Amino acid sequence: MISTKGRYALRVMVDLAQRDMDGYVPLDEIANRQGISKKYLEIILKTLVAKKLLKGMRGKNGGYRLTRAPKEYTVGEILELTEGTLASVACLRADAEPCGRRQECSTLPMWVRFDRMVHNFFYGITLADLVEEENGGSMGQEK
Predict the structure, then answer these.
(1) Could you read off the pLDDT of 9-34 as tens digits, one per residue?
(2) Are 84 and 47 in contact (CB under 8 A)?
(3) Which CATH number do you get for residue 1?
(4) Which of 23, 22, 41, 45 is nearest to 31 (CA)?
(5) Residue range of the domain that includes 79
(6) In this predicted model, which residue has the larger pLDDT, 89 or 64?
(7) What is the largest CA-CA distance in the chain?
(8) Of 87, 132, 76, whose CA–CA distance to 114 is shortest?
(9) Which regions of 15-127 does DSSP assign to beta strands (E)?
(10) What pLDDT score was predicted for residue 61?
(11) pTM of the predicted model, to two decimals?
(12) Which has the closest alpha carbon to 90: 104, 107, 76?
C-alpha cells in the first residue's frame, strides 16, 4: 500500500512540474494548493532535496524547483524514494533475508510477476504524463 508520504510526494512533484522550470515555488504556495500541512510537506521536501529530485533555496524568492525536466522523472522513482520499496511481499524486498522455502514456494512466481507488473507500470509513467493527464490529455501508457 502506498502511504500518504508517497502520494503527497507525487502531488508535490506534479505541482512543481506544472510551474515554471526557471523559478522557485514557495513552500506556502505548494502547501496551500495541495492542502498539505507545511510541517508534513517540509519532511517530504527534505527527502526529495536530499535525493536531488528537487533543489531548494532559502530566503526571498526562495522555494523549490525540479532539478530535471518532468519527462525525466518516473512515478516509480519517486515512490521508491519515499516508500522504500514497492515489493508486495517481504521476501522480494532487496534487503530480505534469504527464505528457506524459496525453492518449494508455489506462490513465489506469482508474486514475482505481480511485482514486475507494478514496477513496469510505475516506471512507465513520467511526471510529464501526469501533467498531461491533469491538463485533459491521456496518460502515455501506450508508448
Answers:
(1) 999 999 999 986 778 999 999 999 99
(2) no
(3) 1.10.10.10
(4) 41
(5) 1-86+126-143
(6) 64
(7) 61
(8) 87
(9) 54-57, 63-66
(10) 85
(11) 0.85
(12) 107
Structurally, how many domains does the chain consist of? 1
Amino acid at 47: T
Decide if 26 contacts 15 (C-beta within 8 A): no
C-alpha cell recorded at residue 10: 507525487
Q: What pLDDT score does 40 carry?
A: 96
What is the structure's pLDDT at 98?
Answer: 82
- 95-123 per-residue burial string, b: 16 or more CB within 10 A, e: under 16: eeeeeeeeeeeeebeeeeeebeeeeeebe
- d(C-alpha 54, C-alpha 66), whole Å: 5
Q: Is residue 91 a contact partner of residue 102, using CB atoms and an 8 Å limit? A: yes
Q: How far apart are CA 9 and CA 73, in angstroms?
A: 12
81 belongs to a structural domain: yes
Please state, in angstroms and rounded to a whole number, the distance separating the CA atoms of residues 86 and 100. 22
* Residue 73, in any domain of the structure: yes
**3-state DSSP assignment of residue 126:** strand
pLDDT (mean) for 120-124: 97
- List Cβ neighbours of 115 (8 Å cut-off, separation of 6 or more): 86, 87, 88, 89, 92
